[in-house]
Design brief:
Length: 618
């Protein structure tokens, strides 16, 4: 509670300080309006004003940030048209740019005021210092005066900004202050160089200095500022698109797994800078919080009314003032977060989740931010929906498998046991008069009961967790190979290529069953002396190949025979591969050997084949 009160007090102090600076600054601006003078050269005045506004709107990238290189224009305006004209033009240019950039009202009023006060304080100090050296008209004295005015302007400007950053609730670490200071030093250096060049060229006798001269002198600075700002923004947009591609590719790679939400948490700031984010996902009819980052309100639990709003929201909603969002769709974040975006995850007109993002500055989400968030939300909706379909498919397959086992028990074990019981009852009645027939019936019943016991054990084994679920695909195949080598003294080589990726339990089951069935066929039917197994994790596929040097077989005859086999034969291998969108290929000729290849596609990844170093165990 104390910490909350402290944050609130600091926020109030920050608002009070910014308000005070704004009032004083705008009083200076209004006072200057009454002392305006008509510009001697209106075209130069308009040109410098336009250049000032352009450089303010398109700040130049310097030292991991942006800074407006406007001081040379402000200084020339001051020299040519006086202090009052300069203050009014400077203030109006900054005001127009802040309005165009849709800054918060407090910032719109504060920024022009603090710039004007910084320049006014710098000018008054230089004016009242009355340093004899600065009163001279040499190039050196002019540059010295320019340097002193520039230094004081940047000094006061940074003081005003630093006070705001220090008193506001958000932390202001030394690293941020250092980066900001270095950025301003670079900006000041550029302004100093250009100002020195201004005095040097102005001292040369090159004729009348008119609007054309000012245009050609300042246009390189304006062009550089404009071009560099556009280039950096394009680079940032490219980084944003690269981050989106990286996120979507990673999500698609992890699509069947439970860890997909962690990828989003680690990569969200590379895509769009936010201080807080929450991801709600609708799973099995229940809304669950799958990912959270930043100052989250821990006591926030969606009400039935809020969930109804979530389910019926189809487009992103932007709340530049979080307090308004609290009243309408609940409170996800602490009071530090000022601007909030609610972006629904919609696919086929069904809302499957809600992505909530927040920033500490009001009105900080721009149109390109909303577009990026909507794009990511669409991708997340597809991921969540696909995962839901995966889960439904796996549940359906498991249910079908259990029903099959139940049918096998009913049609096989139960019927056999019923027959054995009937024979035992018959042998009990015949035991006194016909002992030989009774003993024969008992022996027949014992044989059937042993067969039933075997089938029951097989059914119990089928219901246990699969080997791949317990130890993973590679370990399960390795253990199966070792078991066969110990039992049959078979020569088996197991080769793994590529970097192992996590697969769904169903894909691992199909791959293991295919490998196991192929090994059984190599031993029981092919009479092979050597077996080579390759498991390759490629960019687009997972490939499993089992090759032997056995006697081979006719695939056509085997397919006909497989129709009458109740176990995991060729037809079952093919059906299982279809369930995971895999491709099964069997190449065999009599006397040549057999090669079984199953290829499972990865989802969402693109690129060529990865030729990795093979590791062999055998």
């Amino acid at each position: 509670m104390k910490q909350k009160m402290t944050l609130q007090n600091r926020e109030k102090l920050s608002k009070l300080y910014m308000t005070a600076v704004s009032i004083v600054g705008w009083l200076v601006i209004l006072t200057s309006l009454f002392t305006l003078e008509k510009p001697r050269d209106i075209f130069v005045f308009i040109l410098l004003t336009v250049f000032l506004a352009v450089c303010e709107y398109y700040p130049m990238p310097v030292w991991k940030g942006f800074s407006s290189i406007v001081f040379p224009f402000v200084y020339v305006l001051y020299i040519l048209f006086g202090l009052s004209n300069t203050i009014v033009v400077f203030a109006l240019a900054v005001l127009a740019v802040n309005i165009a950039q849709r800054r918060p009202l407090r910032t719109i009023s504060f920024n022009p005021a603090q710039f004007v006060l910084s320049f006014l304080l710098a000018e008054r100090i230089v004016y009242y210092m009355q340093i004899p050296f600065l009163q001279q008209t040499t190039i050196t004295s002019n540059i010295a005066e320019y340097f002193l005015l520039l230094f004081l302007f940047y000094f006061f400007n940074n003081i005003f900004v630093d006070i705001v950053l220090l008193v506001r609730p958000q932390p202001y670490p030394f690293s941020v202050w250092k980066q900001k200071t270095l950025m301003e030093l670079n900006s000041a250096t550029i302004s100093l160089v250009y100002g020195s060049l201004l005095f040097f060229l102005g001292s040369q006798n090159r004729g009348e200095i008119d609007v054309a001269a000012y245009f050609f002198f300042f246009s390189p600075l304006v062009g550089l500022s404009l071009l560099s700002s556009v280039i950096v923004r394009l680079k940032n947009e490219k980084k944003r698109l690269d981050a989106l591609f990286s996120i979507t590719s990673e999500l698609n790679r992890l699509l069947p797994t439970k860890e997909w939400a962690a990828v989003l948490k680690d990569s969200i700031n590379d895509f769009i800078k936010v201080e807080a984010s929450v991801l709600w996902v609708k799973e099995d009819g229940m809304w669950k919080r799958r990912m959270e980052a930043g100052p989250i309100s821990k006591d926030h639990t969606p009400s039935a009314e809020l969930l109804y709003i979530y389910e019926n929201m189809k487009k992103p909603s932007i709340y530049n003032d979080r307090r308004k969002a609290d009243k309408q769709i609940g409170r996800c974040f602490t009071s530090e977060i000022k601007a909030v975006v609610y972006s629904p995850l919609v696919i086929e007109n069904e809302t499957v989740g809600m992505f909530v993002l927040g920033r500490s500055r009001v009105k900080s989400f721009e149109e390109n931010d909303i577009s990026s968030i909507a794009t990511l939300s669409n991708q997340l909706a597809a991921v969540i929906k696909t995962r839901m379909l995966f889960n439904e498919k796996e549940k359906r397959i498991l249910l079908e498998e259990r029903n099959r086992i139940a049918r096998d028990i009913h049609d096989g074990v139960a019927q056999t046991m019923a027959g054995a019981v009937m024979k035992l009852e018959t042998s009990q009645r015949k035991f006194t008069k016909h002992p030989d027939e009774a003993i024969k019936l008992v022996g027949d019943s014992v044989s059937k009961l042993r067969s039933c016991l075997k089938e029951v054990r097989e059914s119990i084994y089928a219901l246990r967790p699969y080997p791949t679920e317990r130890v993973g695909l590679i370990t399960a195949i390795t253990k199966r190979i070792e078991s066969i080598k110990n039992e049959f003294q078979q020569e088996i080589q197991f080769e793994i290529r590529g970097e192992e990726v996590q697969l769904s339990s169903m894909v691992e089951k199909v791959l293991f069953d295919t490998c196991n069935e192929s090994l059984q066929n190599c031993i029981k039917h092919a009479e092979a002396t050597k077996i080579d197994i390759l498991l390759s994790y490629q960019t687009e596929h997972i490939l499993l190949k089992i090759k032997d040097n056995g006697k081979g077989f006719s695939l056509f005859q085997a397919m006909i025979k497989a129709q009458d086999q109740p176990h995991f034969g060729i037809l079952q291998m093919n059906d299982a591969s279809d369930k995971v969108n895999a491709t099964l290929q069997i190449d065999s000729k009599e006397g040549v050997g057999t090669e079984v290849t199953i290829t499972v596609p990865k989802m969402g990844l693109e690129g060529g084949y990865i030729d990795d170093q093979a590791t062999v165990s055998g």
